[in-house]
Amino acid sequence: MTTLLFILLTFGLHTHGFYLPGVAPRQYDYGEPVELKVNKLDSVQTQLPYDYYSLPFCAPTKIEESAENLGEVLSGDRIENSLYKIQMKTIESCKVLCRKQYGKDDLKHFEERIKEEYRVNWIVDNMPAATKFYTQEVDANGDLQYQTHYEKGYALGFMGGEAALTEAGVAYVNNHIRIHLHYHENPASFYGYRIVGFEVEPFSVKHEIDGEWKETNKKLLTCTPLHKVTVGMTPQPVSLSSKDTEEIIWTYDVQWAKSDVKWASRWDLYLKMTDSQIHWFSIINSTAIVLFLSAMVAMIMMRTLHRDFRRYNEIEDDEEAKREETGWKLVHTDVFRPPEFATLLCVMVGTGYQLLGMAITTLFFAVLGFLSPANRGALMLALLLLFVFMGVFAGYGGTRLYMFFKLTNWISFTFWTAITFPGICFIIFFILNMLVWGEKSTGAVPFSTLVTLIVLWFGISVPLVYLGSYFAFKRGRPKPVKEPTLIPTHIPPQQWYLSSVLSIFVGGILPFGACFIEIFFIMSSVWLHQFYYMFGFLFIVFVILVITCAEITIVMCYFQLCHEDYHWWWRAFLTAGSSAIYLFLYSIMYFCTKMQIVKAVSTMLFFGYMFLISLGFFLVTGTIGFVSTFYFVELIYSSIKTD
Q1: What pLDDT was estimated at residue 139?
Q2: Could you give the CA distance from residue 397 to residue 590 in angstroms, rounded to a whole number?
Q3: Which residue, of 79, 278, 514, 556, is most buried by count of CB atoms within 10 Å of its CB?
Q4: Is the alpha carbon torsion for 468, 469, 470, 474 positive or negative?
């Protein structure tokens, strides 16, 4: 176990240098145009992305959308061209983008978005804009040091009150942007310059015109090459005033700086936004849980079971000793008796196989670096397509269990396997999408994309589920090691601490505890719009989660069988699957402590998607616990002699 973790850690921690094949660096010549593209406006308060030009920014005559994959569309990205003119290594100061008059409606629109803390996202050379900020932290020697951090995008504006020259309750827009671009050159390896950094510094300034405004003479008193815009200048308000209109002049600077950062490492700026020590703590915490459970399983397997096998298999002459025999061995004629709602259990296990295959394959490619954030939408697209193609595992695994229970209507069963979980997801997604569409957000999936999802579902996923079921049906029914008798054995009264509800809820604590720290970072990535690329750590935590689910379910099942309770099928699934309940409860706590949601639609989005995530987590962990327990039960009952 220790050797395996060491190998995974060594491999996982070196994944940040890999990039998606085909994403090649681009060299620019001196003075060559560098395109700045605009992306969506987003906010952690509303979780509703909007198109950049939904606000009346300076727009080109013809707005052109960049080609987007399905993952980008589902993420709400809308990448478009802009009026910003940038040339390689050409410094610009106080460049006027445009001068516009805004009416009350436009100003109110700006004010609403600023109050909701919307951020602007730009892209240069496939790199998102980042804003730098500093925090004071205590180092190992107890000294205060400034630590540099980065946030994706930049704030649309701010509310007055704390900053100088501002009024409380008044919204101010950042109408001057200082663009910092970093380039790397290496004449020995390549010709030209490569962009390796993109930072922005927003300012709010109420510009004053110098003389008469002309197209050939756009001079400003508030911004000159010798006197740049600074923080202490009078900001540009957008809140409604006594005037019917407000003039805003949009300007920008372009600064270039040489960097030693190589192109392959340029994303490290974004990927190192979190402290890796916390991830190490998560690994150590999870490993401790696994070692504890492994010790319990080893004790059961090596001592208790070994002793039971020896006692049960030896020929005894003492009839009284035989009559006094108790424990898990006495239920060998009932342990493989089909449970109630067997079809539903088979559907859930089959779907769990599908989700588990999707998760393992996605993590494999992510650890290898194929799902780099440089390829926007790749992770979302990979999850969707892999779920569709893993339908064959859902059909095969679910049907094998279905036939094990001597059930025969496998065609109808396959239909329910193919539509139950995707159907729940689609219905909830469609309802949430209608709510987002009502807010006129780009997060609303277009009708054509919905049609694409339906085609993927019924055109590819459903046939693959039937294909897997067909292969399982052709193999025939798997036979249990002990066939159940016609008359079930009476189950003796159980102690309160062996009740199903208590065992299930207690069993779900450890699997959730093994991964809750990593869940925090994943939720921050999803809901706080941060980059997550610790796939090496995530893969290790996933392995630990699988081991924890298997071991806790085996231990709980063994205790149950020792008390002659052979109704283990559903309990095996629900023991590990109950960790999803803790996940959803944790999401409620996260919502109350970390989120600042201001809209009812945003609240419904959060809990709607967290319900779907928790449901998927329930099916995955439940399937892991069920399958491991199934093989454990087969193993121990195939090792004893019966008449």
Answers
A1: 65
A2: 35
A3: 514
A4: positive
